[in-house]
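In this section we turn from sequence analysis to structure. A common task in structural bioinformatics is to predict how a protein folds when a small molecule is present, because the ligand can shape the pocket around it. The inputs are simple: the amino acid sequence and a SMILES string for the ligand, here zinc ion. Study the lines below before reading on.
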Amino acid sequence: MPELPEVETVRLGISPHLVNLLDQKLLEVSRRGKYLLFRFKNLTLLWHLGMSGSMRVLLTPVPEKKHDHVDLVFGSGAVLRFNDPRRFGVLLATFDDPLTHVLLKNLGPEPLGPELNAAYLKAKASKRTVAIKNFIMNANIVVGVGNIYATEALYEAGIYPEKAAGKVTLKQFEVLTAAIKRILTQAIATGGTSLRDFVKADGKPGYFRQELKAYGRDGLPCGRCGVVMLHMTIGGRATVYCPKCQKR
Ligand SMILES: [Zn+2]
């Protein structure tokens, strides 16, 4: 599933091709959580890539391929083409403030902004017994921390993934918050991690897979202490952790 860094990579890739190309009718491509927001003068398109969706900007005509489901055709001749093999993507238009839309209004803060900080998470986690991993993956708490990034951030912060959120200390939330921001920033810089066949927004295939220190490394030695990393399942999602470095 595309994670926040992939969506941000799409936004960065398509914006220069589209914004101001079109008699300035498309004002901006922004993002809230994993939704891309195409802001026009009188309406906003909300676009979610689903499980496997990808976007390409075509500056010359290209025949449609299988699973090409949507073309946005611009006055310049540019086409934004949406390919979605598994059809879990979402495209809808709203004439109201998109941030008040039912899909967006309950989302937690963006992870890279100042609204995500240790004090915020500590307050939200108060008395909660939910596993810290599920807590930070909850989009109503904070958006954009998917399974891979949650696994990596908890490893970096030395927190046991099943620890009750309410038992995580402010100091631990400070380290965790910094880890989340660092990992997502790095992932955006490298173009995301999760899809092996991810097509970059400018249509060029391939990208450098980010180095992962925990995710997918069960059975391998921890890079910090050398102890064998273990696998467990939390909330139905694969988790890898170091039994020595990640304190209960
Ligand atoms: Zn370790």
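The two ends are 29 Å apart (CA to CA). As an exercise, try to locate the residues that line the zinc ion site and compare them with your own expectations.
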